[in-house]
Design brief:
Helix content: 10-25%
Distance between the termini: 64 Å
Number of strands: 40
Largest sheet: 8 strands, antiparallel
Structural class: alpha+beta
Strand content: 25-35%
Strand order of the largest sheet: 8-6-3-4-11-40-39-38
Shape: globular
Radius of gyration: 27 Å
Oligomer: single chain
């Protein structure tokens, strides 16, 4: 049949008109929805519109570099695609949308007080979509040897079990320092050169930088198969293999989260942690500056004012300026790189004596630091022959990290020389404001802060104790057998369970800690009336399916919550124990019923049963509702989930940082700036604590970040 050109043209025009009317209708609908989003003069609001309508559960990101520090604020759209980015400092912003199933939208220039419609862009391919997945989706592609391979495979070191292997691949190994699975770690830097095998490339990779000796030693300890499996992983990624699982968009309370980032410190150094307030009194230091702990990277303490958006520094001194660097043998980092870094070559980018690992505020607003003040050889009062009450029971010859206190108002920095090594710090709930420490190896150390303030005498204000179990069951501390000796029914027993985390109980004056190793678990220390002579310990090993204890905290009821490299949040409740808590059978495996396990979100490794590949570093309990989910909510670092993970009413809630991808926290803190200000006066603070901040999205030049997490009542609250 013959069709006239006129009819064809008319039909085409009608079709074009229909398309244009559809586009105009969609644009008009978006503009009407945008205009229905109330905002204040310091907000940016609007709608994210996709090809098929509004995009629910995607992030809107507003970023500026106009302020003294880089400033980023992120929110999530509601079920109608609407958003409000609240409380923005006056500046020019780039605003765009990011979400699962999308690629980043075009960036729109905007200022506070404006409505902005963002045109979402669907991912053209599954591979393009997967580039925005959190690291856990990629890392879960790593093959884990099957249980039957252990003890048989020549590439696996003798006596290494599957749980030990997983522990090394996760929280107490590789992911204890870095996020694995983000773009920079699932690819091999070209700067390393070419290799015959990908296993050789990985052997070269882990030797890079000043932590190369530790990384190489960790994988060598598992066996050569560890290098082969990492190489197989990156080979499969390079060939285009994609994660088997896909992330869901934020749901429920996850859509009410506001995340604000500010950068600080330098592009070559890292932060282990930050502190914002006194965990017992979270209104201390309200609206005040944050203090970072740079650990092995620097003696310079970064300080961030989140009100003025200004970053400054304080260089922490040491008492003996001639003391050696806190690098090399006995430390987790070397003075020189084992092999050149792909980013910094052979440059020494870490150079510290202070080695400030962790800090805590006291009730007066002073900052207490786990920091070296002198060389490792202890003074005489610590050693054998001293009349110090603790040295008489357990003398100590060396300590490579001690205590210091910094007064922000006066800038006064005071050395507190301790005989015991310090690592993490927590204040107790007693009248002496006792500062308890972990990291002492065979002992637990403390400082009577009240006595130190009154006398200035660090020697007499400190004490330490070995961990002694009451295995003879008489209720008192007696002479004890040593860990390598047979159990003597007439004696108590000393154990080696060096505390990693430390947490004074608000319930009964006891002090709890987590301990790591082939056997791991939690320890309870009852100081008694006159420690160390009266201090008695209890130990509770974590049973399967849990393993791989790392950081831990305690709630107001005395329940301990702990991050496990098995992919669980573990909890231990001593009140559930059915048998005797002391005596010859109370040596660690006597209260499995006290443990509960809750699986972290995210996919697991294939072929090893139900699991999560999440490798959480630390768990913290929000005793005072500083975030807004309620009192006593346990929260973990989601080190492969790009954020934090809260456990509320049996559900895991992910507080994700969508940009830049690769956020990795080692610790965090809650603060209430204004109890009367609702959600705006509360929040969590965390540092991006990856030892290599240049591996985050953005690459070389990226600096450590301070993250502020807040919980609105709804996605449009302003």
């Amino acid at each position: 049949m013959r069709v006239s050109r006129y009819r064809i043209a008319t039909g085409a025009a009608a079709c074009l008109a229909l398309v244009l009317s559809t586009i105009l209708a969609a644009t008009g609908a978006a503009q009407r929805a945008e205009s229905q989003v109330p905002i204040d003069a310091d907000d940016i609001g609007g709608i994210v519109a996709g090809p098929n309508g509004p995009e629910a559960g995607v992030w809107v990101i507003a970023e500026t570099r106009d302020l003294p520090v880089r400033f980023i604020k992120m929110v999530v759209t509601d079920d109608r695609g609407r958003y409000v980015v609240p409380d923005l400092p006056n500046a020019k912003y780039s605003v765009w949308a990011r979400g699962y199933g999308l690629v980043d939208s075009a960036k729109v220039a905007a200022q506070p007080g404006q409505h902005v419609t963002i045109a979402a862009t669907r991912a053209p391919t599954p591979a393009a979509a997967a580039q925005y997945y959190p690291a856990i989706y990629w890392y879960s592609m790593l093959r884990i040897p099957a249980a039957e391979e252990f003890g048989r495979h020549s590439g696996i070191a003798a006596n290494v079990t599957q749980t030990r292997w997983l522990d090394g691949m996760k929280s107490n190994g590789c992911v204890g320092c870095h996020q694995l699975g983000q773009l920079s770690t699932r690819t091999i830097p070209a700067a390393f050169g070419t290799f015959d095998t990908s296993a050789q490339a990985w052997r070269r990779r882990v030797q890079a930088g000043q932590a190369g000796q530790m990384m190489l030693g960790a994988l060598n300890g598992l066996g050569p198969l560890s290098f082969q499996l990492f190489g197989d992983w990156t080979d499969r990624v390079a060939r285009g293999e994609l994660p088997q699982a896909k992330p869901e968009r934020p749901q429920g309370a996850e859509r009410n989260i506001v995340v604000t980032l500010r950068d600080w410190m330098t592009e070559k150094q890292y932060l282990h942690d930050l502190i914002a307030s006194d965990r017992r009194n979270p209104t201390v230091n309200a609206y005040g500056p944050l203090y970072g702990s740079p650990e092995y990277s620097s003696d310079v303490i970064p300080i961030l004012d989140p009100v003025k958006n200004v970053a400054t520094t304080f260089k922490a001194p040491v008492r003996d300026a001639a003391m050696p660097f806190s690098l090399g043998p006995g430390h987790a980092a070397a003075l020189d790189p084992l092999q050149p870094s792909a980013y910094w070559g052979s440059e020494r980018i870490w150079d510290t004596r202070v080695n400030n690992h962790n800090s805590m505020f006291d009730r007066h607003g002073r900052l207490w630091l786990a920091a070296a003040v002198r060389g490792p050889d202890n003074p005489a009062f610590c050693k054998a022959g001293s009349d110090h009450r603790s040295a008489r029971l357990f003398p100590l010859d060396r300590a490579n990290r001690h205590l210091a206190v910094f007064e922000p108002k006066t800038q006064k920095y005071t050395f507190v020389d301790t005989c015991f090594v310090t690592h993490h710090l927590q204040f107790g709930y007693d009248k002496d404001d006792t500062l308890w420490t972990s990291g002492g190896g065979p002992v637990v150390g403390w400082l009577n802060m009240r006595m130190f303030d009154e006398t200035g005498d660090a020697a007499q204000s400190q004490g330490w104790t070995a961990l002694v179990l009451d295995t003879n069951g008489n209720g008192t501390r007696d002479a004890s057998s040593e860990p390598n000796e047979p159990l003597d029914p007439a004696k108590d027993r000393r154990i080696n369970a060096g505390l990693y985390a430390v947490m004074p109980s608000p319930v009964d004056g006891s002090v709890w800690g987590s301990f790591r190793g082939a056997t791991s678990g939690v320890v309870r220390l009852a100081p008694g009336a006159s420690p160390p002579q009266t201090a008695i310990a209890e130990v509770y090993n974590v049973p399967l399916p849990g393993f791989g204890v790392r950081g831990a905290d305690i709630d107001s009821k005395g329940v301990v919550w702990v991050s496990l490299s098995s992919g669980h949040l573990g909890s231990f409740d001593r009140r559930k124990c059915k048998g005797p808590l002391n005596g010859p059978k109370a040596t660690g495996d006597h209260c499995a019923e006290g443990w509960s396990f809750h699986t972290y979100p995210g996919p697991g490794f294939q072929g090893i049963g139900d699991n999560s590949a999440e490798s959480s570093y630390y768990t913290w309990v929000d005793q005072h509702n500083t975030f807004g989910l309620g009192n006593d909510v346990p929260m973990s670092t989601g080190n492969l989930n790009d954020g934090l993970i809260a456990f509320k009413d049996g559900r895991m809630i992910v507080l994700r940082v969508p940009y830049p991808m690769g956020f990795y926290a080692k610790g965090f803190d809650g603060r209430i700036d204004d109890p009367a200000a609702g959600w705006k006066g509360r929040g969590l603070w965390a540092a991006n604590g990856d030892r290599t901040p240049w591996l985050i999205e953005g690459g070389k030049g990226s600096r450590p970040l301070a993250a502020h997490f807040q919980l609105r009542p709804d996605p449009l609250a302003k």
